[in-house]
Structures are given as structure tokens and as C-alpha cells.
Specification:
The structure is a single chain. This protein has about 425 residues and is an alpha/beta fold. The protein contains 17 helices and 13 strands. It folds into three domains: about 130 residues, Nitrogenase molybdenum iron protein domain (Rossmann fold, 3-Layer(aba) Sandwich); about 110 residues, Rossmann fold; about 150 residues, 3-Layer(aba) Sandwich (Rossmann fold), CATH 3.40.50. It has a five-stranded parallel β-sheet, sandwiched between helices. The chain has a four-stranded parallel β-sheet with strand order 2-1-3-4, with helices on both faces. Helix 12 packs parallel to helix 17. The protein is globular, with a radius of gyration of 22 Å.
Length: about 425
């Protein structure tokens, strides 16, 4: 018998596909489901702190359509949407009701394509998995549209694994990762946000390399490798700070022949020196209350390994407990164990709270849901996962700049503790 989850941190597959589609300029999302499906996706966006408009076209299936079928309603909605919202690509995504009654969504989308419209249809019912699975479905659906005749573009790197509106600081992380790829002399293809767009989505099969920074981008990278011979790097986690970022950039540069090694090394060295300078000037505050601290981490796989390694290898802190909150596939867990030797995997808020409370950690890194557990321990919480009260449009925790931003947050928390103790 399946166990229930308390306050899971990700919506359903429809949500993930919808967030991905709505994060690309020129894409018009169309939800084929009951009104509540789209409403719940919008409510999660507002609760998560990850931003988003929360508005999209929907077929608004009613009881009548559930009884007699909603395919004709979808046909009508595709036409109406195209007449009002002038996007380059319409993405039709199904909710549970539409798939349970067997609506022929593919046929409706094909009718629109035959009429000259660019329409992509995806099966994204909630019972297919979490929002992370929906993101996977969106990417694989876009890749499946590629023809196999694309011309390779030298130095272009696809960026996969950051889930729009589901990952807390997705926009800042995409922009930092794009900056890093450009810094070593390559051209990033981020797909989402202001640096992406429909052109980038259509050009994924033209890249020279794909980079996945979480388990949720690996399937798309493998599909491009199998279908078009595009090699990929699966880092399993976003790099945090100089150590892991340098390792990843060196792997990327070594995989692409057009990189100027001396320029790439010079870029990396400047970034490393910046972190070292900041760290040197913060040492007194970092250790003002004694030696290295213990920490608890409760974050999705995007951040887990990179964050833990930063705290252990850069700051010399020790892990009290590490919890991965997004239920990554078993294969990804095996790879993550190299960096997370004793990690727990849980989506349940109550279990996560118990693990943190029993860890005795001196710092907690997680979402806003971890605030009560941190308060019970009497220790600071650094919010670095959704849902969060921190808006991350410009600053995440990934890459060189993210490591320095994380240092800033840690030192600010320690200073607040010092002030509270002295008052």
C-alpha cells in the first residue's frame, strides 16, 4: 500500500511541463484539463517564491466533457488560442481527466499542424509523476520534433536540469551557468528565461555538447546523444563554489575542441581568486563562535551534492544529516552517493523535520518548510530551496558567484547570532 506524503515540495507532471513551457518566450502553453488543474499550478508558483505569471490558456473541461469526451473542446480551444495569443509554438499539455477519458489529443494537435500551426502535444497527467517528470517530458517532446538533419553549431552547449519555477533560483542559476559557459569561450543554449527562447528550443539538436546539472536533465541529454550523436556531461548536481565549478568547467572545456585553453584557465583563475579573497576576509566572522560547524541539508538533487561539498571542502564543516527531497531515480542516487555517502531521500515534510531535529545541526540549509525544525534546534536557516521567502531573480547559490552569495548569507546569519547573544 502506498504511503501518503505530508506537504510534498513539487507539484504534478502537468505543473512541471507547464512551468517549462511558460518560461520560454514565444511558447504558448495550453492546458487540456479541468479548471482546477491550471489553478493549482498557479497557486504553487505563488507559494513557492519562484515567480511566474500564473496565467495560461486552458480548455476548461466540464462534467459534460468528462462524460462525452473533450476532444472537440480542445479543437476549439487550439483555434481560439491561436487567434488571441500569437506565439511561435503552442504546447498542449494534458491533465488527469483528459487522459483518463481517453481524449485523442494527438489527433487534435495533428489537425492544427496540418492547418499550418506549430503545435506540440504532451501527455503530462499528474499520475505520471512529479513536476520534475513533467519537465523531462517537455524536453523529450521538444527533442522528438527534431528532424535529424540539423547542422551542428560549433561551441554551442545545451543547458539542462534547472526546472523553471520549481527550482528556487532557477533564473539566477541559468544566468550564472550561462555566464560560466561563455567565460570559457563557448556559447550557452539555456532555453529558458530571457537568454532562451523558441529558437534555442528548436536548436537543441544543433549543439556540440549537452550539460545536465541535475538528474532531471539527463534523459534529454541522453536522447540527443542517441538520436543525434551529441555527447553530454551529467554532473548530477549544480556546482557550488570554486572547487566544484572549476571541476565542471574543466570537464566542459575538455569536451569541446574549439576552447582556447589559456583563456579558459585565465577566466577560471580570476573567479577562484575572487572567492579566495572573500573567504579570507570572512574567516574571523565565520569562526567567531568556535571551530567548524555541523550542518543539515534538505534540498533537491540539483543542489544537494554541490552544496554539501562546498560546506565540507571549502568551509571545513561537517554534515549532521543530508536529505535529498525530490526523489531522484535510482541510477542518479547511485552516482550521487559518491558525494553524499549517507544521504536520506524523502519528500515527506514530517520525516524531513524529524531527521533535522534529531541531527543536532548548528546550521540548516533548506526550504521555508524547515523553519520550525531550525527554530526547535535554535539555529539559523539558510533558505536555498522551494518553497522560499527569498526571491532569487538575480542571485542563486550555484557557480562561482553563488558560492560567494552563500558565504554572504552564512556570515549574515552568524552576525545576527552574535548580536542576539550580546544584547
Amino acid at each position: 500500500m502506498a504511503a501518503s506524503l505530508v506537504r510534498p515540495r513539487a507539484g504534478c507532471a502537468l505543473h512541471g511541463a507547464l512551468y517549462a513551457a511558460s518560461a520560454i518566450d514565444g511558447v504558448t502553453p495550453l492546458v487540456h484539463a479541468t479548471p482546477g488543474c491550471g489553478l493549482q499550478a498557479g497557486l504553487w508558483q505563488r507559494r513557492s517564491g519562484c515567480g511566474g505569471s500564473g496565467g495560461w490558456a486552458t480548455s476548461n473541461l466540464s462534467e459534460k466533457h468528462i462524460v462525452f469526451g473533450g476532444a472537440s473542446r480542445l479543437r476549439e480551444q487550439i483555434k481560439n488560442t491561436g487567434g488571441i495569443l500569437r506565439g511561435e509554438l503552442t504546447v498542449v499539455m494534458t491533465g488527469c481527466p483528459a487522459e483518463m477519458i481517453g481524449d485523442d489529443v494527438e489527433a487534435m494537435a495533428q489537425e492544427a499542424r496540418d492547418a499550418g500551426d506549430d503545435v506540440l502535444d504532451l501527455a503530462t497527467a499528474g499520475f505520471r509523476g512529479s513536476a520534475y517528470h513533467g519537465y523531462e517530458s517537455f524536453l523529450k517532446g521538444a527533442i522528438a520534433k527534431a528532424t535529424g538533419t540539423e547542422t551542428r553549431r560549433a561551441g554551442v552547449v545545451n543547458l539542462f536540469g534547472l526546472v523553471p519555477h520549481q527550482d528556487a533560483f532557477w533564473l539566477a542559476e541559468i544566468e550564472e551557468l550561462s555566464r560560466l559557459i561563455a567565460g570559457v569561450g563557448l556559447t550557452p543554449n539555456p532555453l529558458f528565461g530571457p537568454l532562451g527562447g523558441v529558437a534555442g528550443l528548436r536548436a537543441v539538436a544543433q549543439a556540440e555538447l549537452s550539460l545536465s546539472v541535475s538528474p532531471w536533465g539527463a534523459a534529454a541529454a541522453r536522447a540527443l546523444d542517441e538520436g543525434f550523436g551529441i555527447p553530454f556531461i551529467d554532473s548530477g548536481s549544480l556546482p557550488v563554489g570554486a572547487i566544484t565549478t572549476t571541476e565542471l568547467l574543466e570537464r566542459v572545456a575538455a569536451s569541446v575542441g574549439e576552447v582556447d585553453d589559456s583563456s579558459a584557465r585565465a577566466f577560471i583563475e580570476v573567479e577562484r581568486r575572487r572567492e579566495a579573497y572573500c573567504l579570507e576576509h570572512l574567516l574571523e566572522t565565520l569562526y567567531s563562535q568556535g571551530g567548524p560547524r555541523s550542518f543539515a541539508v534538505a534540498v533537491p538533487s540539483l543542489y544537494a551534492a554541490g552544496l554539501a561539498r562546498f560546506l565540507i571542502e571549502t568551509l571545513g564543516w561537517s554534515p549532521a544529516t543530508i536529505i535529498v527531497t525530490d526523489d531522484p531515480p535510482l541510477g542518479a542516487r547511485e552516482a550521487m552517493q559518491q558525494d553524499l555517502a549517507a544521504a536520506h531521500y524523502s519528500e515527506d515534510a514530517d520525516e524531513i523535520a524529524r531527521l533535522i531535529a534529531g541531527s543536532g545541526a548548528e546550521f540548516v540549509f533548506g526550504s521555508a518548510l524547515e523553519r520550525p525544525a531550525a527554530a526547535r534546534l535554535g539555529v539559523p536557516l539558510i533558505e536555498c530551496a522551494a518553497p522560499t521567502h527569498r526571491l532569487g531573480l538575480t542571485t542563486g547559490i550555484g557557480g562561482f558567484r553563488g558560492g560567494v552569495a552563500l558565504l554572504d548569507a552564512i556570515v549574515s546569519s552568524i552576525a545576527a547570532l552574535d548580536n542576539a547573544a550580546s544584547s
